[in-house]
Design goal:
The structure holds two protein chains of two kinds. By secondary structure, chain A is mainly alpha-helical. Chain B is α/β, with parallel strands linked by helices. Chain B folds into two domains: 248 residues, Rossmann fold (3-Layer(aba) Sandwich); 28 residues, no CATH class. Chain B is built from 13 helices and ten strands. Chain B has a six-stranded mixed beta sheet, with helices on both faces. Chain B has a four-stranded antiparallel beta sheet with strand order 2-1-4-5. The radius of gyration of chain B is 20 Å and the shape is globular. Classes of the chains: A mainly alpha, B alpha/beta. Chains A and B meet through helix 7 and helix 8 of A and helix 3, helix 4 and helix 7 of B.
Chain lengths: 278, 297
Amino acid sequence: MPDRDGHWRDRSMSGAVLIGTCVLLGAFAWLVVDLLITAWPRLTWSFLVEIPRRSGRSGGISSILMSTTLVLLVCWSAVLPLGLGAAVALSSSHHWWTRLVRTSLDVLSGIPSIVLGMFGLLVFGDLMGLGFSIASGGLTLACMILPLVIRVADAALRAVPKGLIANASALGLSRTTTLLRLILPAAMPGLAAAGALGTARALAETAALVFTAGASDRMPGSLADPGRTLSVHIYELAMNVAGGDASAAASAIVLLVLLIIIQAGGSALLGRISGAAR
Amino acid sequence: MNPTTHTDGSPVMLAGATCAAVDGACRDFVTEGLGLRYGSSWAFSGLSLRFPACRISAVVGPSGCGKSSLLTTLNRLDELEPTARLCGRVCWGGLDIRRPDVDVISLRRRIGMLFQRPTPFPLSIRKNLELPLREHGCRSARERSDRAEQALRSVGLWAEVVDRLDAPAVSLSGGQQQRLCLARILALQPEILLMDEPCSSLDPLSAEIIEDLIASLRGFYTVILVTHDLGQARRLADHICVLWPGLDGGTLAATGSPDAVFASCQVDDPVLARYLGHGGNSLRSIAADSALQNPWQ
């Protein structure tokens, strides 16, 4: 009987989806619990505010957090104008080359970060003379996340209803006003998603930074100093420092919390922006 | 085949003085041999129409005859569509508005357009009206708010929104949104209003309000109304153009006063005659007629 068959199929599908969800959540919970158990003795306030000692086995991660922040700042000060500008240009033009550019961006965003690290070392480190520095690392990260940010922002801008643009044009609004007052606010949720995605990818990056920002765990004095980001710190502790497991796990917890804050903060900010616009 | 349009799609050449000579100081809106194609397919072609100043003109015809496309060429909105190619001229007060040296921003202020779907900007009601005003050089806040109030009053929306001017415009009902869109245009003090089926996405009551509003604009604005609703065209229009789909897109099938078009005007095509209700056939009886959907097959 078809009805009972359908019923049976529905139930087994629901079961499969439920099992899949449980497996995923379980894996994540396992990861977090395992990290917490390993990191527990190191998870104190002083871990956040002290500089690392004995290659990170003791002390804290304050200099690491500072380097991470500075690398992200350099990265975004390049990505924000370039990425937004490129996305606006792409989304508003209809030339034959826009498809070519979109395809190129898709290919670029698939380039392994280690290759981009080599590129950054060559271009920013050697040619531009930045050496191993936070500036060099931030700019390399910018190259890495730009394609992703442009594509997501481009999609967000193109999702703005055409009727809105036609109405604005019919009222004789200039392209600048239409962009600044109507299109960008309407695309804000998607643009914020692009920002969160880009930041998350930049925070998680290791390979591209080892070659460019270096791995020095000292407190950076300027953007020309080398610096170690959180991900690189975890990598160094886990791979190159005997007895660094607890610190690595504690740093990983901090990284996870940071990522959650970025996502949650992004969507909270977003709610306020879109609430005000509506 | 259309006599005024070359089959290879090249623009129809007209004597340079035609516009000015015919138009003079008069403010009629005139198209000459106007044709528009998207890529290789024509939306309409060879349209030489006259929309009398300060009158309501209706453009009617079945779907796909290029009515809405025609409207977009009258305020150069078709330029947003990269594949659109236009030939012919659009003249207003002796000026070809398609000339590249015409300032399109101020042109669109003078030629307002109301769309089928009401699309308020995702801003407050007040800002919906004030943003275009500010854009067109209305610097004083007092003047902006006065003109906004005047526009809202003229569409009968003032009393309904006076206590919530800072509420989001999208919180209004569909009919109110359409009236807001009309107020947004009227605040700019245009001379011509293009309306693309302004009632077709509204409930009957809201549609009636909009229709009454359009009727009240007679004598003040040159209104060009595209509509599917022949009854509405008959009720509102002083002048009617019937477009009919052909091989080269929509072409002009009949034009004149409503009485002339709907009752006495001579047409050869039997389907067109039935569409216009000649010979007592109701519109419903031809709705099922497959020849109406594909009259060239």
